[in-house]
Amino acid sequence: MIFTENFAIVIIIAFLLDSIIGDPQNPIHPIRLIGNCISWGIKAFKKVKVQNHAIQFIAGMILTITVVCLSFVATRLLTWGFYQINWWIGLVAEAVICYFLIAAKALKVESMKVYHSLAAGNLQEARKNLSWIVGRDTQNLDEQGVTKAAVETVAENLSDGVIAPLIFIFIGGAPLGMAYKAVNTLDSMIGYRNDDYEYFGKFAARLDDVVNFIPARISALLMMVGSIFVGGDIKGAARIYARDRNNHKSPNAAQTESVCAGALGLCLGGDSYYRGVLVHKPTIGDDVNVPDPKHIKAANRLMYAASVLAVVVLAAVGFVLRGFIYV
């Protein structure tokens, strides 16, 4: 962007807006617009009914590159236009755009719906609320299973929902942050290993693994340090991270899950059903504590501790770099 040294200010404003307001749901939400573009691509792909796996892969790659580039260019032009009007208007506009890319409060709000349902003794409602934030089947989960799933999704989404966007915004402002969210959204919509998307979504899935590789590990470190401030077991977090950080098909998902499992003394992961099919997965952590709804609240405290640390560290680095620029 135009004033790279001011991305620290953008990050602070964007995070504060998310913490106060949360994720606004409206038709012009940038992520929804990206999702609409992806949906159009999916419809076109299905209409053609391509059977050749290589062509399916190429089609998915073209869709991915197109959506990511459009997201970057459109955001770049939009922010550039605001900066041309006035520097302060540009800064505020960029911060507002970046605010749409951060999902800390939304993650807390949705997971706490599960907590409140469990606290009220309404397991059926808890399962329903959980189904909105996880991909697994929830209708047969008991209270412990619902609790574990909610904790897992808070831990896993710390990286791609909060820390990774902040990092990419810090590097390249709103345009790069939007490009990252485009990759993330593509993976969530077509990055599945099934008959429909095995080859069509492979490029998007692998690209998502690549762009999240470093942020996931930074997120794990921040969560580990953050556990000190919210009563987590940092020794347990470090031990389980060292042992179980690779206990997942994704190279990134178990990074933060292992820290959360160790900090809370829980055994996460394990076998789950997806659309009626049992999927075998390794466990993460040890059964030190019995899963309890209170662990959902604890997971959110860990998530926010890591998020605040990320904002503080990135802002500090930004202001230091700004000082060097003007020396």
Task: Please sum up the structure shown.
The protein is mainly alpha-helical. It contains 11 helices and 4 strands. The strands form 2 sheets. Strands 1-4 form a two-stranded antiparallel sheet. It has a two-stranded antiparallel ribbon with strand order 2-3.
Descriptive report:
This protein is 71% helix and 4% strand. It is mainly alpha-helical. The strands form 2 sheets. Strands 1-4 form a two-stranded antiparallel sheet. A two-stranded antiparallel sheet has the order 2-3. It starts with 6 loop residues before the first helix and ends with a helix.
Blueprint of the fold:
Elements: H1 7-21, H2 30-48, H3 53-85, H4 87-99, H5 104-119, H6 123-131, H7 143-190, H8 202-226, H9 234-244, H10 253-264, E1 267-269, E2 272-274, E3 277-279, E4 283-285, H11 294-325
Antiparallel strand pairs: 1-4, 2-3
Radius of gyration (CA) equals: 20 Å
The low-confidence runs, each spanning 5 or more residues with pLDDT under 50, are: none
Task: Please state the average pLDDT score.
Answer: 92
The level of helicity is over 70%
Q: Which oligomeric state applies? A: single chain
> What is the H/E order?
HHHHHHHHHHEEEEH
Count, helices: 11
Cα shape: globular
User: Going across the major beta sheet, what is the strand order?
Assistant: 1-4
The CA-CA distance between the termini, in Å, is 21 Å
The tally of beta strands, per DSSP, is: 4
- Sheet-strand content, in percent, reads under 5%
Largest sheet: 2 strands, antiparallel
Structural class: mainly alpha
